[in-house]
Design brief:
homodimer; alpha+beta; about 40% strand
Chain lengths: ~270, ~270
C-alpha cells in the first residue's frame, strides 16, 4: 500500500546517520509560498521518531514549534528518546539547517489497551459526502495545496481578499492526499496543519502569517487509520481569538464514519 | 505585589546554578494525591525560562510533557534558548530528578505589537459572578485544591463516584489563587491545569489518571493580566473523546470582563 513512491513518502524520506540523527530535504510537491508547508514538517519530524530503532508504541501527542523559516534544501533531524515507561515513551526532536535550529518538537508514543471508550464531541452534522462536493480548484495555489484533494462544505478560501470582515472563520472540509494514499499517523499529522489560516477567512485580507506552535493529539489507533484507508477525512476548523500579532486555531479530523481521529491546536503570528 | 512569600511563589522558587540550570523542590502546598499538582510543574518550568538572563518577551505558547511521576523533593531544571528571532524566542526545557527526565517542555516567547484584534469565541453566558457562588469545600481534597478558591457555576466534582455515566463533562468555574495573588503568566500557566480530570465528571468513577501532554496558549499580554489582578478568572473546560486509555480536555480562561486570557489543551491517560 505505502509504495514509498507517493510524493508524500518521498517528501518525508530520511536517511539515517546513526544515534537518532537523519538527513532529509524539502520537497517541491509540498512547497508553500515561502519554504515548505508546515504539515509536511510535522510529518517528517514524527517520521524521525517512528523510524528510530528505540521507538515503542504509536503517537498520542505531537507538538511542533516553528522556530525559524525553513529554507528549501537539506536539513538534519535529531530525535532523542528522553524517557521510556512501560506504556509511554517521550521524545525530543530538533530540525537544523545551516543557520541553526529551524524547528523543535516533542512527541509522546503509547501502547494502548482496550478500555471503556466513549465520544463526547460529535462530528459536524448535515455535511454532504465528499462525493457530492467539488474539489477546490488548484489554480494559483501553492504546490502543497495541489498535494491535497480539498472539498469544502463550508468556509473555503474567500473568492476575493476584499477586506470585508466576516463574523466567523469556521470551515468544514473533506481532505485526502492527492494522489490518494492510505491514511497513517504521518499523513494525519500533516493533515492536522492543512487548514488555511483562519485570519484569511475572518478578515479577508492577505497578510504574512505563519504557525508558531502546533499540537496534535491522536485519538485513533493504527487499526482505525487502516480502516479509513485512502478515503477523505472530514476536517472542522475554527479560531477563538486574534490579538496583537497572534491568533489561535483548532481543528478536529473525523473518519468518514464519524470517529474522532485527531484534534489539533495551533498559535500563529500575523502581520497587519 | 508579588511578595515572594505567597505559597505559589515559594513553590516555583528556583536557585540559579548558571548556564540555564537551576534547582527547585516540590512544595507541600501544591501536592496532589501522588507527587505535585501538574499546574505547579507547568509554572516552575515556565519560571525557568522567564528568569533566564537571555529571556526576550512574554509567553505565547507552553507545552509540558509529563514524562514520569515527579517525586516529592528536589529537582533540577535546564532551560535552553534554541532560537532567538526579532520578535519570537524558542525554548527547550527539561526537568530531571535522580532517576532521569521527569518532564520536558517547549516554550515560545514573543514581543507583541499593536495590530487589528478581534475575539471570535465568546465567554460562557449567564454565569453568576464569583461573589454569588460558594467556594468548593476543601474537605478531603488534595493540598493543591486548597491553594485555589474554586466556585463552580456548573460541573463540579461529583458528590459521589457512583458510576452513573453523565452525558457530558463541561465545567464553568471561577478560579483564583488562595490566598489571593495578582495574576501573572506563571499563575495563569498553573490555572490552565486546574480543571479536574474530565473523566471523573463524565464517568463518575474514580480511577488513576494523569496528564501526559499539556499545551497552553497565552492570548493576554502582561497589561491585561495586571488589570485582572487578584480577582477570580472564569474557566470553561470540556473533553472531546475518551478512548483506550487516553482522553483529551480543553479549557479557556477568561478575565472577569470577558477577555480570553489563555486556552489550554491536554491529553491524559486513564486506567479502567
Amino acid at each position: 500500500m505505502n509504495t514509498q513512491s507517493h510524493p508524500f513518502d518521498l517528501a518525508i524520506r530520511l536517511v539515517p546517520e546513526g544515534e537518532g540523527c537523519s538527513r532529509g530535504a524539502t520537497s517541491p510537491a509540498y512547497a508553500n509560498m515561502v519554504g515548505p508547508f508546515g504539515g509536511i514538517t510535522c510529518a517528517v519530524l514524527l517520521q524521525a521518531v517512528l523510524m528510530h530503532p528505540q521507538r515503542q508504541g504509536d503517537p498520542i501527542a505531537l507538538t511542533v514549534n516553528f522556530a525559524a523559516p525553513i529554507s528549501d534544501g537539506a536539513f538534519r533531524i535529531e530525535a532523542r528518546p528522553v524517557r521510556t515507561n512501560r506504556s509511554t515513551q517521550h521524545w525530543v526532536v530538533q530540525l537544523t539547517q545551516e543557520d541553526g535550529v529551524a524547528a523543535t518538537a516533542t512527541a509522546t508514543l503509547a501502547m494502548r489497551r482496550d478500555t471503556w471508550s466513549v465520544p463526547e464531541a460529535m462530528p459536524p452534522s448535515e455535511i454532504p459526502p465528499a462525493s457530492a462536493l467539488a474539489p477546490m480548484p488548484h489554480t494559483g495555489a501553492p504546490a502543497w495545496v495541489r498535494s491535497y484533494d480539498l472539498r469544502f462544505a463550508e468556509g473555503g478560501l474567500p473568492s476575493a481578499f476584499d477586506g470585508r470582515e466576516q463574523p466567523h472563520s469556521r470551515s468544514e472540509v473533506w481532505v485526502r492526499d492527492e494522489p490518494p494514499r492510505p491514511l497513517d499517523f504521518l499523513s494525519l499529522a500533516a493533515i492536522c496543519d492543512s487548514f488555511f489560516p483562519r485570519i484569511f477567512l475572518r478578515r479577508r485580507t492577505f497578510a504574512p502569517v505563519g504557525t508558531v506552535s502546533l499540537t496534535s493529539f491522536f485519538h485513533a489507533d493504527a487499526q482505525m487509520l487502516a480502516r479509513q484507508s485512502d478515503r477523505h477525512v472530514l476536517g472542522a476548523a475554527r479560531a477563538m481569538n486574534y490579538r496583537n500579532g497572534f491568533f489561535d486555531q483548532s481543528a478536529e479530523i473525523w473518519s468518514d464514519d464519524g470517529q474522532l481521529l485527531a484534534s489539533s491546536h495551533q498559535i500563529a503570528y500575523f502581520r497587519d
